[in-house]
Amino acid sequence: MKILTYPDERLKQVSQPVAQFDERLRTFVARLEETMRASPGGVGIAAPQVGCFQRIVIVDVSSRPKSANNGRLVLINPEILSWEGMATSREGCLSVPDYTGNVMRAERITVQACDELGSPREFLCNGFEARAVQHEIDHLDGLLFLDRLVSRRTDLFRRKRYGNRKSA
Amino acid sequence: MNRWYMLTVVGKDRPGIVAKVTTALFDGGCNLGEASMMRLGGSFTIMLMVELPEPAGVLQRLLEPVASSLGLQVHVDAIDGQLHHHREPDARISVYGADRAGIVARVTALLAEAGLHILELESHVAGSRESPLYIMHIEGYAGQGIDALRRVLERVKGEGIEVSLEPVETMIG
Questions:
Q1: A136 in active site
Q2: Neighboring chain A residues of B151 at a CB cutoff of 8 Å
Q3: Which residue from B137, B169, B172 is facing A156, i.e. has the nearest CB?
Q4: Right CATH for A9-162 from 1.10.10.10, 2.60.40.10, 2.130.10.10, 3.90.45.10
Q5: CB neighbour list of residue B105: distance below 8 Å, 6 or more residues apart
Q6: How far is CA B89 from the centre of its chain?
């Protein structure tokens, strides 16, 4: 499927909850996943990125061997139940080509969502995966990472203030 | 016709310079590309990609009134640069320590030896006049991998500067 790119205004609209967990939904999820996997470097995608304004996201960061993850996540009507820790890191977006920027995200989240069959699930996500989930859920509310950019200098000083992230 | 210039403007800092310079450029038919403005040591500095289908002298003259009224130095270079040529950093290096001559040369020579292509660098002298503190922040592309950088940075341990390296893992979603 074709990925919408900003300044397409449709990316700024709020998506609606999924009500029907049927074969059509599952076909759409499969096509959405195909689109994500066909995009270089893409570890997540949200339905509005392909012009479907329903609360569906897919995240799969298992290609990053060093980061803990839940494998392939299909999150329908997702809600973040809790947040913990904040960190700045770099993000890009399939809908915003040729740009990456620094964004503050929670480091650890608990997210509740339905799977493709409509069963409620709960996941604990950390680090890279947590960032991906927050980025995709933002799409459902019409938010892009561009709405959350922090400057390099902010990054530098925040990192100093939070202090104890010295790497080996 | 696309013709890009790198415009450098330097002068004593005061509020309103960016607005006045860019208004003069807009009124003169220029289109702006990427830009980076910094206040360095109380001076205003900006580098701006400017697109104008005219010779460099036209751009220079366009800025004469605003430059002379604000006391700015203007420098114009024709460049063959283009937009949409971003390169993503995969390494971030922070350096700090008591200020002394040679920190940048020492650290960047090691990083270059280990394959780092610096994409962004900013540094500050903080602390007090009596005991100045040097702080530098670098982002770049590690041409020989992060571990190569880590190995060379081991060599500055014990030289009175703190160096930390972390990978930049860009999440594309």
A1: yes
A2: none
A3: B137
A4: 3.90.45.10
A5: none
A6: 14
